[in-house]
Amino acid sequence: MQNPLSIGVDIGGTHITCAALQIQEGRLLEETRARATYSHEASAETILQSWAQALNQTLSLVDTTQLAGIGFAIPGPFDYRNGVSRMEHKFKNLFGLHIPTALNPLLQVPKDLTMRFLNDASSFAVGEAWVGEGQGFQKVVAITLGTGFGSAFTDQGVPVVSGASVPKEGCLWHLPFKDGIADDYISTRWFIREYQKLTGETVAGVKELIERTGFDAIARDLFVQFGQNLAECLAVPLQNFNPEVLVIGGNIAHALPLFGDMFRAGLEKSGISIKIVASKHMENAALIGSARLLDDSFWGKVSAQLPHI
């Protein structure tokens, strides 16, 4: 490969993380990791300067003559094929901006770098299917459980975003569920809301609830209910796609021992038998998946699948 390195970028609402990757091996170069913080409500200039700060730190630690470009794991709505933000809630000040044109001049490199983009949940799934818990399986479903409910479906490592076997764009968060949508129940705010409803107490998040399960039956019961909800939400999508493995990432994945039994039991009631495993790579999976976009052969397969948003 002419350019054996790429940079993977994970864009969140409050921070950017980036690191270089050896493309052929799928190996992150940990010594190149950089991070910067910001508010997604900040001006476009402030956000882009923060992104450039982290990227320039990583760029200073690699031989840029060996660099194929930068891959971004970034939430939607986003025109992933063309690199234009369509977000109106998060990053509203980036709306309509062509990211490569706006960001390249801020990078300390002698020439413009190729930039490619993929949904953050899809990037996580690509990383897991390539070198993570989905390695060696043809069909992998990856979900991220945290502030929101992310999902992606891959076949031979490539995201599947259309067709009868998957929901549109591989997204589950917005689908009707109980008296709302899936994201209302499969997220951190569901735990916070339900615990407050049952006890009158406010917790900071799922980590605090995990810590309470040793002495708090209400906290334990919430994880059991969450497992039931997750099984009910995922049953039909898993039946339709028929994957061999389900990989779980995000902060709530740390609670898999607390909800996993009920989750598996719920799926078995629907006739679904599948390997269920928590991600070991976690955030790194999105970095690896986004960095892989600079493999031209792989990008050719992915870009053919990208939805027109």
Summarize the structure in short.
With 309 residues, this protein is α/β, with parallel strands linked by helices. The chain has 2 domains: 5-120 and 292-305, ATPase, nucleotide binding domain (Nucleotidyltransferase, domain 5); 133-280, 2-Layer Sandwich (Nucleotidyltransferase, domain 5).
Can you describe this structure?
This protein is an alpha/beta fold. It has 2 domains: 130 residues, ATPase, nucleotide binding domain (Nucleotidyltransferase, domain 5, 2-Layer Sandwich); 148 residues, 2-Layer Sandwich (Nucleotidyltransferase, domain 5). Helices cover 37% and strands 23% of the residues. The chain is built from 10 helices and 14 strands. The strands form 4 sheets. A 5-stranded mixed sheet has the order 3-2-1-4-7. The chain has a 5-stranded mixed sheet with strand order 10-9-8-13-14, sandwiched between helices. Strand 1 and strand 2 form a beta hairpin. Helix 3 packs across helix 9. It is globular, with a radius of gyration of 19 Å. The relative contact order is 0.16.
Looking at this protein, list some descriptive labels.
23% strand, five-stranded mixed beta sheet, Nucleotidyltransferase, domain 5, 37% helix, alpha/beta, 309 residues
The CATH C-level class name of the largest domain: Alpha Beta
Number of domains: 2
Provide the CATH architecture of the largest domain. Answer: 2-Layer Sandwich
**Low-pLDDT stretches:** none
Please give the share of residues in helix.
Answer: 25-40%
Question: What proportion strand?
Answer: 15-25%
Shape: globular
Chain-averaged pLDDT:
94
Helix/strand class? alpha/beta
Which radius of gyration do the C-alpha atoms yield? Answer: 19 Å
Per DSSP, the total helix count is 10
* Strand ordering within the main sheet: 3-2-1-4-7
CATH topology of the largest domain: Nucleotidyltransferase, domain 5
Order of helices and strands: EEEHEEEHEHEEEEEHHHHEHEHH
Note the quaternary state here. single chain
Distance between the termini: 32 Å
Kindly state the number of beta strands: 14
Could you name the CATH homologous superfamily of the largest domain? Answer: ATPase, nucleotide binding domain
